[in-house]
C-alpha cells in the first residue's frame, strides 16, 4: 500500500512559478516510478512528467518540457514538480501517482493506467 498527499497548488499569475510536493508513505519510496498527471475541466487526465525510482531518469510531456522539472528526495519520501513560466493552459488539478508494478525503462509511465496509487489532487490555477 502507498498513500500519496499532494500540496502546493494555488492561484498564480502567468509566467510565475509554483512548486508542488507529494508526500508518500507506506511501501518503500525508492523502489517505484513516480509520475505527475493533470486534468483540466472537460478533458482527460494527461501525462505531465515521470521519474525513475533512483531519480536518474525523467521524461516530460512536450507541453511542459523546458518549463517543468520533476524531482524526488528518497530520504524524505517526497516527489516534487517545479513549474516555471506557467501559462493559463496549465490550469488543472494536478495528481501525483505511483507505479509499483512496471519498471521505468518499459516506457509505460506515460499511461495513467500503469499507475496503481494516486493522490487526491491539488488545484493549480494560472491567471492571465
Summarize the structure in words.
The protein has 128 residues and is mainly beta. It has no helices and 11 strands.
Q: Key features?
A:
11 strands, single chain, globular, 128 residues, 7-stranded mixed β-sheet, 49% strand
Topology:
Elements: E1 2-7, E2 10-13, E3 18-26, E4 33-39, E5 46-51, E6 58-60, E7 68-73, E8 78-83, E9 92-99, E10 117-118, E11 122-127
Parallel strand pairs: 2-11
Antiparallel strand pairs: 1-3, 3-8, 4-5, 4-9, 5-6, 7-8, 9-10, 9-11
- Write down how many β-strands occur, each being a DSSP E stretch of 2 or more residues: 11
The structure class reads: mainly beta
The helix content, as a percent range, equals under 10%
Overall pLDDT confidence = 95
Q: What is the strand content?
A: over 45%
What is the N-to-C succession of helices and strands?
Answer: EEEEEEEEEEE
Amino acid at each position: 500500500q502507498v498513500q500519496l498527499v499532494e500540496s502546493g497548488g494555488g492561484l498564480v499569475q502567468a509566467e510565475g512559478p509554483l512548486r508542488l510536493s507529494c508526500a508518500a508513505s507506506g511501501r518503500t519510496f525508492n523502489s517505484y516510478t513516480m509520475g505527475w498527471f493533470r486534468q483540466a475541466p472537460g478533458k482527460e487526465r494527461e501525462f505531465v512528467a515521470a521519474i525513475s525510482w533512483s531519480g536518474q531518469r525523467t521524461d516530460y510531456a512536450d507541453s511542459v518540457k523546458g518549463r517543468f522539472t520533476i524531482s524526488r528526495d528518497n530520504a524524505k519520501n517526497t516527489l516534487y514538480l517545479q513549474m516555471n513560466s506557467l501559462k493559463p493552459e496549465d490550469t488543472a488539478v494536478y495528481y501525483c501517482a505511483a507505479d509499483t508494478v512496471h519498471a521505468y525503462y518499459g516506457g509505460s509511465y506515460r499511461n495513467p493506467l500503469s499507475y496503481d496509487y494516486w493522490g487526491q489532487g491539488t488545484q493549480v490555477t494560472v491567471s492571465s
